[in-house]
Queue: 4 jobs
Job 1
Amino acid sequence: MTLQNGNQAAPAGHEPRARRVVITGAARDFGRTLALFFARRGDEVLLSARNLAAVEHVAAEIRGLGFDKVHALRCDLADPASVRAFADGIATVTDHIDVLVNNGASWLPGEDLASAADEDIAATVASTVTGTVLVTKHLLPLLLKSDRPDVVNLISSAGLTGNHRTQAHAAFYAAKHGQAGLADLLSPQLRPQGVRVISLYPPDFSNPDPLGPEWDTAPRGAGDQLTAHSLVECVMFAVDQPRDCFIKAFHFEQTS
C-alpha cells in the first residue's frame, strides 16, 4: 500500500517487535524504498549514503510521515576510512543493530571492457565488494549484540553464474559475483552465532515512488516486470521468520 502520514498499525495478529535497521545506499531508488517501509513498521532506521544531504532528505521524508526514529550518516563504501567512521557513528547511536541491509553499490553500464574508465571500474568494484565486506566486518560486533541478527544482501541476477541479460559493464558483473561469494561464505560461518545471511538476486525491476499513487497501480501479474513492492515483501517476510528459519537466498525468474 502507499505510505501515508501518521503511524499505521501492523496487520491484526502480526505485530513484529521494532528493530534497529542499518541500510546502505539509502538516498535513492530501492534503498530509499526500504528505508520508508522499515520506518513505517515502527523500526528505527540508520541510513547511509555517500551524499549526506541526499540521505538527510530521505530522513526528513520519514519524519514527515510521522516516524522520528531515523538517523542519517555519510558513508563512502569505496573508502575504508569512511566505512570505519560510519561504523563508529552507528556505535554512538545504538549499542546493537538487528538488521544490516547491504544495498549500496555502484551501477556501471557498458557493452565491453573499453567502454568504462579505469577509475569508474575501480570505484564500482570497491563500493560493491570492498564496501560490503568492510561494512559487514565493522558492524558485526553490533549485530552479535542482537538476539535476532540478520544480514540482508541486495545482490542482483548479475551475480548468478550464466546470467548475461543485465545491460551492465563486466566490472559490475564481477562485483556482484564478489558479493555473492561473500554471502555464500558468511552464511555457514555466522549461523553458529545466530546470524542469518539472506541474499536477494533480482533481475531488473521497476521501483515506482512508494510515496506516489503509482506504487499501488503498478501491474504485478505473472507476465509483468518484477516490482520493488514485491522485493520489499520478500525482505520483510525473511526477517520476520522464526529464528530456526534460515532463508539463504531469493532467486527470481527473469521474464524479459
Job 2
Amino acid sequence: MYRRSAAAAVLLAAALTLTACSSGGDDADADAKAKPPASSAAPDPADTPAPSAPAADAKPTGPVLPDAKLTPKTGSFTAEEKKYLSGRVPEKMDPAAVLQTGQEACQRVARTAKRDKDAATGAVITGEIAGAKDAITHLCPDQKPILAAAEKGFPEGPRQSPAAGNYRALTQATNCTWEAKGKDGAVLASGPETPPKAGDKITATIPAGTAEFNSSGCYAWIPA
C-alpha cells in the first residue's frame, strides 16, 4: 500500500522506506519497507545501475552478443540465465555484468515482498524496481505471484478505457483521489467520499462505460 511519487507530499511516521541491502543484519538487508508513497527517501543504489551495465529493463539498441557467445569468464550460465541475457548484452560487455542487474532486481523484489507483498507489487507495477518482469520470469520464478498480481494492476495517472470493477490503491497516503469519466467527459464516479485517514484502505469502483480513469496520489491500483 505504498509508493514513492514525486507528486506526493505526505510522510507517515509509521512508514518504512525502500532501501538497498547491506551487510549489516536483517534491517540493513531490507531493500524496501512499508512506506507511504509521499516520502522522499534517499536514493536507492539499486535504482541506478553501474555505468558499465545497461539498465535492468533496457535492451541495447546497438549490436548485441549472439546467444552462442553468452558465456561467463568462468563457470557457465543456466538455461534460464541465457534466456534472460538473450538480446540484452551489448558487444564487448561481460554478460555476467548484465546478469547481475537482473539478479539485483530479483533481490529487491524478494526483500520487499518479505516485508510487504503490496509494496513489492506496487514497485513492479510502477517500474520502481526496474526490469522486474523479465528478471522474475527467468531468474527468480519464486516471485511469480508478485508478478501475477502486478500484471492485473496499473499505476496512478490517466488510464483509458479501464476494465469496470472494484480496485484498491496500494498507498496509505491521505491525498489519494480518483475520478472516472464517460466518453462525453461527464464524471461517472469519484472518490474517496470522505477524506481518508492515515492507514485507511482506499478503494475505487470503476463503472461500466468509463472512458478514462484518472487518479493522483494513489501510487498504483490492483483489483480489490
Job 3
Amino acid sequence: MSARDGKVVVITGASSGIGEATARLLASQGAHIVIGARRLERLEALASDIRAEGGSVAYQQLDVTDLDQMKAIVLMAQKRFGRLDVVVNNAGVMPLSPLEALKIDEWNRMIDVNIRGVLHGIAAGLPIMREQGFGQFVNVASIGAYEVSPTAAVYCATKYAVRAITEGLRQEAGSNIRATLVSPGVTESELADSITDEGARQLMKDYRRIALPASAIARSIAYAIEQPEGVDVNELIIRPASQLT
C-alpha cells in the first residue's frame, strides 16, 4: 500500500502540465484526487481517464484568483471524502517580457495567479487543516524563486514571493501541518504559450530546448506527500541534469 493511498489531494492548475501529471500519478497510487482549473473540458477528459484506470477523482472549474471558488473546491473535497490531506497550489502563468515593454496587464495577471492564487489556496485549506489537526501544502514555485534572468523579473518576483510565503507558513503552521516548496527547472508545459513578447518568446524557446517531463515533477510532489508523520520536506529543486546554470 502506498503512503499516498487514501489521502485527499486538491490540485490547482490541473488541466495540463505538472498539475495533470500529478493528478494521474497520485490517483494511480490510491489517493482521492480533486482537480481544478479554468478549462472545464480538460478537467472532464482527465477525470474520465483517471476513472477508466480505476482512480478516485472529482473535479470543479476553478479560477484561483477568486477566493470563493478556491474555498468551494476545498470544501467540496472535504465533504465528498471526509477530510483534506493536501492542497497542491500549482496554478501559474508566465507571460515573460522586458520591464521596458510595460506589459502591466500581464504583470498583474502573474501577481494575481502566481501569488494571490497560492494565498487563496492557503486561506481555503488552512482552517480545515487546523480543525482536523493535520494537512500539507505543496506550493509549486520555479527555479525562478532562486535566480532572476532578463525578461523574467516579474515572474521571478512572484516565485520568490511563493518561496517566502511557504517558509512563513512552515514557521507559523506548527508541527501538524506541513509546508513544501517544489521548484522545477525547465519542464515540459504550456507556460511559455502565454508569452506575447517576441524577444522573450525566442529566448524561452532556446532556454527550453532540454526540458524535464512533467511526470518528473509529479514524482517529486508524491515523494514529499508520502513522507511519514513528523517528516516535513521543505524545499525541492528539480532540474534537468544538463542544466548547470
Job 4
Amino acid sequence: MSLVVQCLILATILSVVIATLVYRSGALTSLANSVSAVGLTIPSFALIGLLIAPFGFGVTPAVIVVTFFAALPILRNAVVGLTGIDKAVIESARGIGMSRFRTLVQVELPMAWPVILAGIRVSAQMVMGIAAITAYALGPGLGGFIFSGLSRLGGANSLESVITGVVAVIILALILDLLLVGLGRITTPRGIRV
C-alpha cells in the first residue's frame, strides 16, 4: 500500500506537469496520448526483468515500474481533462485580468480535477496488481506471499500463501479506492460537484 500510494503521488505530479506543458498543442497532445497507449502494452513482468540489470534487485526497479504504469492513465486523463475545458471559461478568466499561470492553477486544474482523479483511481487499481508482481525483483509488497507459494506449489501451505497474497492485494485495492473516492469528495470544488 505504501509503495503504491507513494508511486501514485509521484506519477500524479509528473503526469499533471507533463499535461500542462502539452495540452495546448495538438501535436504534443497526440504524442502524449500515443505514449500512454503504447506504454500500457508493455508487459510489466518484462519491464521488471529489464530493470534488474541496471538497478539490481530491491526497491528501485519496483518504484520505477509502478510509477511508470501509474503515470500512463493519469497522463491521458489529465490531457483530456485540460483540453475539455470550455474555451469561453478560459477567456472569461483572462478577461477579468488573470494571468495565464493563475488561470491554469485557479480555473483549469480545478475544473479538470474530477477527470484527473478518475485516472488516479484507474491507476491505483492497475498498479496494485503490478506492485505485487514487483516482488519478483525482491521489491516490497504482498507479492512475496504469492511468489513463495507458487515456488513451493504442492508443498505445505503453498496454496494458503498464494491466497493470502491475492486476497490481501484485493482488500488493499478496495480500501485505496474508497480513500480516493473520499479524496474526490473533499477536493472537488463545490460548483463542479453540483
